Each structure stands twice: as C-alpha cells, then as structure tokens.
C-alpha cells in the first residue's frame, strides 16, 4: 500500500498572505500556523497600520519595502490587487510556500473535525503525481489507496509534485456573471479526494488555498500584472496557473488538486468584480487556446528559461490580441530578473535585516 509521509516542514515552509486589513483571521488558524514563519504582503496604502495577533513569527512588507528592495524592477509587482502576494514568493528563503487569503477560515470535514489544510498540502507536495496515466482511485499514494489493475508499473514512480491546489467550502470561486445569476449558491459538497491534473490539461488555479514547491516551480508562480493601472484584475492566479502548468508539463512536474478544503467566508462584490474581469472574460477565449498549443524549446531545461521563452511567445502571439499582453510579457521578463536578483547571490540576507520591513516573533 502506498502511504503519504507525515511531516510538518516547520523550517522549510513559509506562509504568504496578501492583505489590506488586520489579520484577526489568524486566531482561528493559530493551532495550525503558529509554528510557521508568515510573510505578509500589505497591499494599498503603506502608511496604514496592519495589526497581526501576538504570538506569530512574521515579516510584514508594504509597497515602500517592495520599491526599496526591487528598485525599478518593482514595476512587475501588482498594486491594489492580491497578485502582490508573489512578492512574498520572491523574498522567501524556504523550499515550500503556502498562500491563503485573509477571508479564508478553517473548514470542517463531514465528521465535524477541523481540517488542517496545511498538513494536507504538505502530504500532497511530498508524494508524487501521476501526470502520464490517470489512476481511477485518484491519488494512489494516499493511505488506503494504491495503483489499480492495469496501471503500468513503469509509471508508478510518478513525477515530482510542484503544486498542491486546494478547494473551498461555502462561497464558491465564481466569476462575476456566475455570481450575479447565483448570488445565494454555496458549495456544501465535500469530496474526499486528491487527483493529479493530467499532462496537457489546463485548469483554473485559485490562489486562496494553494501550496507549491518553490525550488521546483517558484519562478513560474508570477501572478501577473493586475489591479491598479491595469485593464484587468482577478486573473492573477489564473495567469500563473496557465503558465505554471505549461512549464510543469514541459519539465515533467506534477500538479495535484482536491483536498484540502478551507472555508471561504466572504463573497466579493460581483459588480466590482465584473469591472475587473470584463476584458479577461473575452481575452481568456484567446489566451487558453494559446496555452493549449504553445510549445517550449527542448533546450529550456530550467523554470527560468521556460518562463522567458513563454514570455516571448506571449508577446508575439497574444500581443496581437491587445497591447496589454505586450506589457504583461515585459513584466514577466522583469519578474525573472527580480527573482534572479533576489535569489542568485548565495544566501539571501536575513529578512530582519531589511531596514523598513516589520518583523515580529
């Protein structure tokens, strides 16, 4: 029987949280998060004081810190959009990242037990993915499961898992038109399953309950150029998901989706969302076929090389759809430059040594 390892990765994982408000929601997560380091990326007005409950080990960055650390390259970090969270990925020193939104609470399974979402993400990341052949019992590495009859033995080692995509109970992750026609709909279905997203298949990645192996796929987890000053919002995680999946497929890495669930507590305003999503709803009909057909050169053997090649394809192909994609492609290149600048000089400086960022243990 294939079994998942049990580990908390206390010294190998950072929790990244984008926010514009006090983080009282952390009280509910205290039993699960207190032993981990938090990287909080404050969006909006940097002069606003964000309160973090006592007892957490955290680093708080605002826009002034982003500008100071990245200089001109700070232009690739979105403003007034949750896409700013990827700055946390950039400055982390850990192997793994878990990111969650501040309106997401601890969910309960059908038995009434509180779900340790982080523990399940870790299990997902520490077990292989079945990218090349679908197992009808879903994740064969889960306790109580295995490979079914007819599954090729040559493929049972699987592929390294780069991304663990969790789901949500209560408020569904809908686009604005669906929100408008289903304002009272709530997700009450708890499906006790984890599955690998097959090679060659795209999916809509949601950033509110997400974990990934930063060393395996970190440079591809750029949440785009969204929000203030841009013609689009709420497609930041989608963009990262499409780019990431193409690169994972190219490099032979896996993506899992399903457990764990969190409780999504607050529905955003559908009319505000429609204004942010309007262009994206049309553009995605061009972008998705692009990602379905794009091919990366064989010589692209690293995530960075893949991402730069993908940026070039975005510029030449999607640039014809709208000039925004030319700007986005340039930001993708800037992002890789920023990633290499922050991460390439051996051991990065301790976060507490960065002058203006707030740190507390």
Automatic annotation (TrEMBL):
<dbReference type="GO" id="GO:0071669">
    <property type="term" value="P:plant-type cell wall organization or biogenesis"/>
</dbReference>
<protein>
    <recommendedName>
        <fullName>UDP-arabinopyranose mutase</fullName>
        <ecNumber>5.4.99.30</ecNumber>
    </recommendedName>
</protein>
<keyword id="KW-0961">Cell wall biogenesis/degradation</keyword>
<dbReference type="GO" id="GO:0009505">
    <property type="term" value="C:plant-type cell wall"/>
</dbReference>
<feature type="site" description="Required for activity">
    <location>
        <position position="156"/>
    </location>
</feature>
<dbReference type="GO" id="GO:0071555">
    <property type="term" value="P:cell wall organization"/>
</dbReference>
<keyword id="KW-0333">Golgi apparatus</keyword>
<comment type="function">
    <text>Probable UDP-L-arabinose mutase involved in the biosynthesis of cell wall non-cellulosic polysaccharides.</text>
</comment>
<comment type="similarity">
    <text>Belongs to the RGP family.</text>
</comment>
<dbReference type="GO" id="GO:0005794">
    <property type="term" value="C:Golgi apparatus"/>
</dbReference>
<dbReference type="InterPro" id="IPR037595">
    <property type="entry name" value="RGP_fam"/>
</dbReference>
<dbReference type="GO" id="GO:0033356">
    <property type="term" value="P:UDP-L-arabinose metabolic process"/>
</dbReference>
<dbReference type="GO" id="GO:0005829">
    <property type="term" value="C:cytosol"/>
</dbReference>
<dbReference type="InterPro" id="IPR029044">
    <property type="entry name" value="Nucleotide-diphossugar_trans"/>
</dbReference>
<dbReference type="InterPro" id="IPR004901">
    <property type="entry name" value="RGP"/>
</dbReference>
<dbReference type="Pfam" id="PF03214">
    <property type="entry name" value="RGP"/>
</dbReference>
<keyword id="KW-0413">Isomerase</keyword>
<feature type="site" description="Required for activity">
    <location>
        <position position="149"/>
    </location>
</feature>
<keyword id="KW-0325">Glycoprotein</keyword>
<dbReference type="GO" id="GO:0052691">
    <property type="term" value="F:UDP-arabinopyranose mutase activity"/>
</dbReference>
<feature type="glycosylation site" description="N-linked (Glc...) arginine">
    <location>
        <position position="149"/>
    </location>
</feature>
